[in-house]
Amino acid sequence: xxxxxxxxxxxxTSSKMRELIQETNLSPRDFICPVFVxxxxxxxxxxxxxxxxxxxxxEDINExxxxxxxxxxxxxxxxxxxxxxDEKGSSAFDDKGIVQKAISQIxxxxxxxxxxxxxxxxxxxxxxxxxxxxxxxKIDNDESLAVLAKTALSQARAGxxxxxxxxxxxxxxxxxxxxxxxxxxxxxxxxxxSAKHRSSFYSPFRxxxxxxxxxxxxxxxxxxxxxxxxxxxxxQTDIDEGVDIVMIKPALxxxxxxxxxxxRFDVPVAAYSVSGEYALVKGAASKGWINExxxxxxxLYSIKRAGADMIVTYFAKPAAKFLQES
Length: 326
Ligand code: PBG
Description:
Helices cover 39% and strands 18% of the residues. By secondary structure, it is an alpha/beta fold. Helix 5 links the parallel strand 8 and strand 9 (189-196). Helix 2 (61-70) packs across helix 3 (98-110), helix 4 (141-158) crosses helix 5 and helix 8 runs parallel beside helix 10 (292-306). The model has no long low-confidence stretch (mean pLDDT 96). The protein binds ligand PBG.
């Protein structure tokens, strides 16, 4: 008898053989591309900590969505940066707000050729920089729910396909679902940031979206990164409340939770590869310490392999390009 008995290398002998046995696939169709739109902005502005990511004026949004769509990416995730902030986050639910304007403009121009998703949160819109309404020195959960529901509704009126609550208030999915249904928006879907962790990986985003908290931190509402059972309960709760797509966020340090969510539940699972994950790669690549394309490919495949059906990623455009070329 020859040794070894099992030779796994046999199926690695040629690139065609390796293609044949490849278990995980990645395509531009897996991506959701974040888009930052800023009110009263004159020209595209680079975000310091996120090299190739820009904030766009409303006038440039259609061109940007055209580029994304031509790359075969099926969806965008809109984030708005308003000119006006107050304690109530009023510009988040203003029918003439920057996000609402962007949604209706994209809808008019692209019809149903792109899935329009929009972030539903208050931190860009509140003077406090918190994701909910602050009363005293606390984030008031139920007060915040009403404002989140108003925001989702006004995005629905503008023509959004999917609202994506990221405030981590208890009951946000149920409240938004009811508000949408009561107004006849039964076809507007909800992709919740179900298990959004209290993470240091968000800091470049806070530069991009001007939404760092003015005092304190987000520990009273985001999930501690030490607790996986608690994260799964967040996912379970969103499913009980009628969510359509659940999300795990960030992605790279949370692959175990993506896999666990995939194993336990049958709803579509999204992963959000966040700004800090992007910045780590870009930073090291700019020094020549790693190969950006190869690392990006490996990271995105690993998120798919863990069980994500779709990935919100700042690499959506470059990755779609290299996937089309390969
Ligand atoms: C706002 C929000 C944040 C992110 C998405 N929506 C920041 C935060 O919670 O502080 C982070 C996304 C990223 O880092 O790419 N609630």
